[in-house]
Write a structure and sequence with these properties.
heterodimer, A: mainly alpha, two-stranded antiparallel sheet, 18 helices, about 0% strand, B: mainly alpha, 2 domains, three-stranded antiparallel beta sheet, 5 strands
């Protein structure tokens, strides 16, 4: 037990220590300074030439968004086709079938938007071809899309007055070749040498020691698993995700993967400091995020290692903690840590089944996704946090009776309206979706659908409600983890979460980019004694208060009906 | 949008060759140097493959150490947990049944000695491990059925207990059971 706590602390400290040099490197890459990875430059030039792209062309915020959205649309169309016809394509040793139209719709959206909500199991729902050319491909490119949006935001804040946010293609390709590809290669190699499959062999049939005939799924999984961690994607090669012993062979790989989840999101917060030369501001933001993160980790570690009281009542011993849905080699403490790392960052991979977490841990995981800005998804995490910053700037301005300013630009009605709309979007999508699904479940349990609403849930009562709430929360946050007991591979869930995924991804990208595009166009106002200092502890406390108030007001009633009510039923 | 459409399609094709084709292919080559050559590390008994080191197996016979309950019955064609919530009455009844079954097969054990892992399903349904406590409570049964001394069984448990600098102490169940069969 003690070494398990020490294990978590070491994992977190190593993550931060690795994130600092990575942040310096990321800032250098996007500033265009020389780095060790410049050997990639000729290759990138070939990419641009073949694609007919001029990487030096400046883009304003509208052009930037158009390029970003166009390429995402192309992925959606091609990917949908490949999933829908996967049975006819090569690299299908297990003869897996085509995806149904609604499942293909949900799957392709979910991977384009970096969510990886999986309404299928990897062993039977995909072929090696689609695992590699759709899923692995999108795990790189969707993360690079998020990073490109973030760098555009940095560019807008960096220059005093500008139209240009940089070139989308240039940032996007470099995010892939300079940051994601090298890190993914390292992590994949670690996994391979610890036993994760990487060959193209199909399922193996064996007779076990006791004499049962079983099959063992395999495949070229190592690379996909590495990028799924680093790119805050989270979709598993296998159905059980990172709880599967092939995806996560031992405690060491578990630590390496835990580090990979948080590495780039934390590095991007520090990169802001190096890129904009505002290190103190980056530390303040990092401090707020870390305060939330460590609080959440402590709560979940406490409840998971304490065990399930309903099981303790039966008179057996829970020496390590609650073990339902967990793995012996990882243990409840490291799984509790992971449950927060994965929900903080919109990663969504799991090394324990969240449906079986004790009530408060499950609730905190949901709360973490409702905030969705604590380190956050690659790139988009900070975009979400930026919305909280704008609201904090605005409210602070009102409190002292001055026109609010942020980094030398006046924040006016238009920007605040956009920020407020984006901030209200999450509660709308999550709560409206949950309300609608709950209504169907209660009023039409026997509706004549392929899967009747009455048989959606795997658990009765409050926990069943939590399954619904978790699914929409995870979709809106583009997280991808689930209370997987939910019967979600049917038209209602595939389509309704599909739309939540799209809105929950692109509006929170478009909003902040529009705000920063508008801000950057305005006249620069040099700092004076009347300027609100955004890199101060006071302002940090202000952001913290905004986050707490917005989330508490929006979600407390829903959380009270689910996890909190369940807590009081067994404790 | 039209201006960006053609470049979008072209860069998509190029990057999908890189990430869908070359990247996994390069890793498959690296894996040739790793144990198991990227196919997964196998365990053999009497020269025959009886399983994978990392993939748990079902053991129901009294002469073997048992592993954890599995939501997929240890068929690694798939994987997954039970997804039962902690307060689900049906689930709690199931755990109670497992406890009762365990006590019938291990009459010398008192209830409080049973570690939770032996009566709760793992996340993957393929957990290859149990803890030393999980093995200890079964030692008497295995010794009796196999007609060997308890010391001998305990010796094997100790030999197969893997202590790690960090993280839980584990026993690879398949290897432990293979070692039991090899005793003869």
């Amino acid at each position: 037990m003690n070494t398990e706590i020490i294990g978590i602390i070491i994992t977190y400290v190593v993550t931060v220590l690795l994130a600092i040099p990575l942040a310096m490197y990321i800032a250098k890459v996007f500033k265009g300074e020389n780095t060790w990875s410049d050997f990639m430059r000729p290759i990138e030039r070939i990419f641009f030439k073949l694609s007919g792209i001029n990487p030096k062309e400046d883009m304003n915020w509208k052009q930037f968004l158009k390029a970003l959205l166009t390429v995402n649309l192309v992925w959606f169309v091609i990917g949908f086709g490949l999933l829908f016809f996967q049975a006819y394509l090569p690299l299908n040793p297990d003869s897996n079938p085509n995806q149904s139209p609604d499942l293909a719709f949900n799957t392709i959206i979910s991977f384009v938007v970096n969510c990886d909500l999986q309404h299928y199991s990897g062993e039977t729902g995909l072929t090696y071809f689609t695992q590699l050319f759709v899923i692995t491909f999108l795990m790189f490119t969707s993360a690079a899309t998020g990073m490109a949006a973030l760098i555009a935001l940095f560019n807008g804040l960096k220059t005093k007055t500008t139209n240009s946010l940089g070139n989308f293609w240039d940032i996007f390709v470099k995010a892939n070749t300079r940051i994601l590809l090298p890190t993914a290669t390292i992590v994949a190699t670690i996994l391979i040498f610890n036993g994760t499959p990487a060959s193209y062999s199909g399922k193996d049939s064996i007779v076990t020691l006791q004499g049962d005939g079983v099959q063992v799924s395999r495949g070229p999984a190592a690379g996909m698993i590495a990028i799924k961690m680093l790119g805050t994607n989270g979709g598993g090669w296998f159905g059980a995700n990172t709880a599967h012993p092939f995806e996560n062979p031992n405690y060491l790989t578990n630590a390496a993967e835990s580090i990979s989840i948080l590495l780039i999101p934390i590095a991007l917060v520090f990169a802001l400091g190096y890129y904009l030369n505002r290190k103190k501001f980056a530390y303040v933001i990092f401090g707020i995020m870390t305060l939330f993160f460590l609080t959440f980790v402590s709560i979940n570690v406490h409840y998971e290692t304490a065990g399930n009281p309903a099981i303790a009542k039966m008179g057996i011993s829970e020496p390590t903690g609650s073990m339902e849905g967990k793995e012996v080699r990882i243990g409840p403490a490291a799984s509790a840590y992971w449950s927060i790392a994965t929900t903080s960052t919109s990663n969504g991979s799991v090394n324990a089944m969240h449906d079986s977490l004790t009530p408060i841990s499950g609730g905190v995981a949901m709360l973490d996704m409702m905030i969705n800005a604590l380190y956050g998804g690659v790139g988009v995490g900070f975009l979400n946090f930026f919305i909280f910053i704008i609201i904090a700037v605005f409210i602070s301005g009102l409190m002292v009776g001055r026109t609010p300013e942020f980094m030398g630009h006046k924040v006016e009605a238009r920007e605040v309206k956009i920020a407020a709309l984006i901030a209200l979007l999450s509660p709308l999508l999550i709560l409206a979706g949950t309300a609608l699904a709950s209504y169907l479940f209660m009023q039409y349990p026997n509706a004549d659908w392929a899967v009747k609403p009455g048989s959606w849930l795997n658990n009765p009562g409050h926990h069943g409600f939590s399954e619904i709430l978790y699914e929409y929360t995870s979709s809106n946050a583009n997280n991808g983890s689930g209370f997987e007991g939910l019967g979600d591979n049917n038209i209602w869930w595939n389509v309704s979460t599909g739309f939540v995924l799209i809105l929950g991804r692109f509006l929170p990208i478009i909003g902040p980019i529009a705000i920063v595009g508008l801000l950057a166009n305005k006249k620069y106002i040099p700092e004076s004694s009347g300027t609100l200092k955004t890199d101060s502890l006071t302002f940090g406390a202000m952001i913290l208060a905004i986050i707490v108030i917005v989330t508490a007001l929006s979600y407390f009633p829903a959380l009270a009906l689910g996890p909190i009510a369940e807590y009081f039923s067994i404790y | 949008m039209k201006k960006y459409l053609l470049p979008s399609i072209k860069i998509t094709i190029i990057l999908s060759i890189l990430f869908g084709g070359l990247f996994p292919l390069a890793l498959a080559c690296i894996a040739k140097l790793a144990p198991g050559k990227g196919d997964g590390v196998k365990v053999t008994y009497n020269g025959k493959v009886v399983g994978y080191e990392l993939i748990g197996q079902k053991f129901t016979k009294d002469k073997y150490f048992w592993g954890r309950p599995s939501a997929v019955d240890y068929n690694a064609a798939g994987s997954g947990g039970s997804n039962r919530g902690p307060s689900n009455p049906e689930y709690l009844k199931q755990v109670q049944n497992r406890i009762d079954t365990f006590l019938v097969h291990n009459p010398t054990i008192t209830k409080s000695e049973i570690p939770a892992e032996l009566v709760t399903a793992s996340g993957s349904g393929l957990d290859p491990n149990i803890s030393p406590k999980g093995a200890a409570v079964q030692a008497a049964r295995v010794a009796k059925v196999r007609n060997i001394s308890l010391e001998k069984v305990n010796e094997l448990i100790t030999k197969h207990t893997e202590h790690h600098t960090l993280g839980p102490t584990t026993i690879n169940l398949l290897k432990l059971n293979v070692a039991l069969d090899e005793l003869k």
